[in-house]
Amino acid sequence: MPEMVGDWRRLWGISAYRLLIAAVIAVLLHLPASETIIDLGGHARLLRVLALVAATVSLGYLLALLLRRPVQPRRHAWIQVSTDTLLVLLLLHFGGGVSGPFSILPFLLLVSTASLLRGKSAFVFVWILLALLVGEPLLGGMATVHPPLGQLFIYVLALVAVAVLADSLVISLERGNRLALQRDAEVVNLNALNREIVQHMDVGVFVLDRQNRVILSNPIARTLSGYRLWTSAPVDLDLVQPRLATAVQQPAQGDSEMMITLGGRDPTLQDSAQTLLVRNIALPRSPYRLLLFRDASALRAREREAQLAALGRLAANIAHEIRNPLSVIRHAGNLLGERVETPDSRHLFEILERETVRINAIVESVLEMARPSPAHSEPIPLANWLPVLIAELQADPLLASMTIVIWEISAQLRVYADPAQLRQVFWNLLHNSAQYGVAEDATVRVEIETVRADKETVMVTLRDFGSGLQPEVMERIFEPFFTTNSQGTGLGLSMVRELLRINGGHIDCENHPQGGVLFRIFLPCWCLEGEE
To answer: What pTM was computed for the model?
Structure first.
């Protein structure tokens, strides 16, 4: 399609150029002093009519091309070349031959032929034209005074040279045009690819011009900046984020990295303040530069998770190595205790037994958290299963005095989880409430409510009536080995989170407005066909 469009443009251009030449010749031949300007010989009237006819034909053909595009440009190129050859030969024949004023026209004809036909097709007309030009004077035509053979030979050589050069020039121009079109397509595709890459990067990206205007951005950068009035037009960085614009304008050597806290009274910002890690990258020999955004709090959270994961693996290895010696120590203590009869010594062996059991429980918890078994999920009807579970758990001495209230649960409400792992989740949460949810009157009360969060999720809430948690404690409550109790292991809630993750759920925690701590457990819902 681009090649066909190029052929039509070439046809229009040469037709317009032919019209110009024909019009100029017609004007010169019709001037009162035309015979003093051009030697017309005895064919002045005939040449005037011929030039006028050529101009009229050129104008009509140009109008036909402009008004209605023909179907086959190649055919019209042959028609134009044939017509031009006939007109040039007639002008030469009646205008003095190669020694006359129209001897330049064959050179122009060769250039237009090379442009329209190119290659072997163009040289067919070249050799036809040369044969006619050489044969006509030898046969006694074209002029009363014939040019010398040497002049005719040089003229023919000049025509051949012009034909070769014109054909080479046209081929080079076409090759250059094709290469330019190919490069343009590659640049367009590369720009589209770069934009697609920027849009899907996991970091925020701003591309700034010399006026500090954002000309390209991706969704993450637009979200992190807090600006809400994005359009396709470039926008000043001062409007997007004034604090960022101020920081970027500070002089820096090469690439720079900075921490910027967003927030304040700017109405274009998001409600919650956040800290961004911004990298300013200057692009060499380019009027643009890049700003890369990362949420500093998210980075710190990922680093903390990586550290905790490494710590968990280390603790699991250590626990594995401790478990076997601990079993030997416990067994040896039991054997020694059987041989001791004094009450004081037996009390010491009871302490030894109790503490080894406690250490072994910590080791088992670490190993279970580090290498959890896969979930064997099944539908669990909470209305029947949960009260039975709570009754079994309250057989534990630590939970026996706790008041546990289960609000009414719909009989159709079922979750899809591993019963054993879900039992461990409730056991850990209730033990946590027994230790930290003590009310001012020294009682422990827990309320459990179960509702449908959405079509695919069930939410179970456990609320105690204790003093609540401090913000710094709330932030780290699910971290392994974090505890505010010197006798605790710090593994209970982290194990809860891991077990829920294995079962396709999750948990969050917050202080209740009326006091105490509220845990929300989200689990997959098991729905029968036809249930909403």
So the answer is: 0.43
pLDDT digits (tens, 9 = 90+) for 89-137: 777 766 666 666 677 777 777 777 777 776 666 666 667 777 766 666 6
Give the Cα separation of 426 and 47 in Å (integer). 111
Copy the structure tokens of residue 462: 């456990």
Q: 75-101 as b/e, with b when 16 or more CB fall inside 10 Å?
A: ebbeebbeebbebbbbbbbbbbbbbbb
DSSP, res 112 = H
Nearest to 526 by CA among 422, 406, 392, 429: 422
Give per-residue pLDDT as tens, 373-386: 778 889 999 999 99
As a whole number of angstroms, the distance between CA 160 and CA 158 comes to 5
Provide the 10 A C-beta neighbour count for residue 192. Answer: 10
CA-CA-CA-CA torsion sign (179, 183, 184, 188): positive
Side-by-side strand order, sheet with 274-282: 235-236, 213-217, 204-208, 289-295, 274-282, 256-262
Beta strands in 85-219 (DSSP E): 204-208, 213-217
Tell me the CA distances in angstroms from 486 to 428, 481, 489, one per residue in order: 17, 11, 8
- Chain segment 317-340, per-residue pLDDT in tens: 766 677 778 777 777 777 777 777
Mean model confidence pLDDT for the chain: 75
Give me the count of residues in the chain.
532
The edge-to-edge listing of strands for the beta sheet with 517-524 is 403-406, 445-454, 457-464, 517-524, 506-511
DSSP state of 477: T
In sequence order, the 6+-apart residues with CB closer than 8 A to the CB of 296 are: 259, 274, 275, 276, 277
Other beta carbons less than 10 A from residue 175's beta carbon: 10
